[in-house]
Amino acid sequence: MQTSSDSHTGSLRRNFGSVLGAQERRVFLALAAIAVTWVEAGCAKKVIVPDVVKQDLDQAEKTLAAVPLKVGNVTGSQGTGAYVIQQGPAAGQQVEANSTVALTVDTPVPVPSLVGGNITDAVSTLQGLGLRVAFLTKRTMNPFAKSKVEVQDPTPGTLVHRDTMVRLTVLRSGGDPEALLSIVTSEPAYKNLNPKYKSFLNLFLADPSTSRSMEPQDATSAPSAPSSPNQ
Fold first, then answer.
1. CATH for 46-106?
2. What is the pLDDT of residues 82-125, one digit of tens each?
3. What are phi and psi of 49, to 5 degrees?
4. What's the confidence (pLDDT) of residue 137?
5. How far apart are CA 107 and CA 156, in angstroms?
6. Strands 100-106 and 94-96: what pairing?
7. What is the pTM of this model?
8. Hey, where are the domains in the chain?
């Protein structure tokens, strides 16, 4: 026969078991949530950062969104036609999807008017704008003709990215290249040229019959023309 004492003891055991079960369930759910978080963090989707340098800012944003990535901090000149000149992380790196890419931007520059001017001033002007230069030679039989820019491409006022190549057609007489080199290297504009532009101009003056374009490696890989005493 069950006494009132036995009934009370059984009730206590059932209540204790019920409380313990609820605590166990809460602990289990908490541990499960932590495990899911760890798994998701370890399995986060990785994507390759695309190269958006030289792209217009609007196009760069679309390119990144397609990966998918987001545009992060944007620094630099953000006027009309702004384009990317630097990015971080760099192209080719693996990052988490939907992370940000910081961009440095610049605005296009108008091509100056160079026709009619001498070649040294033209190269100096292009250097100041961060533009490259290419020479095409136009020969003349007039021995007294001065070397000057006859034609330029792009035309004056055209908006271009920095590092764009500007092609100059230069009028050249059949005079002595060394004499021309001596004249050019004594001009004030020549002394303000950095080594890359100076080396390029020297090479053209030493052999004006050859059309040349200035590429990044010219300053280090190409041999320099003979120096003038006035250099």
1. 3.30.10.20
2. 999 999 999 999 999 999 999 999 999 999 999 999 889 999 99
3. -70, 125
4. 83
5. 17
6. unpaired
7. 0.66
8. 1-43, 46-106, 109-221
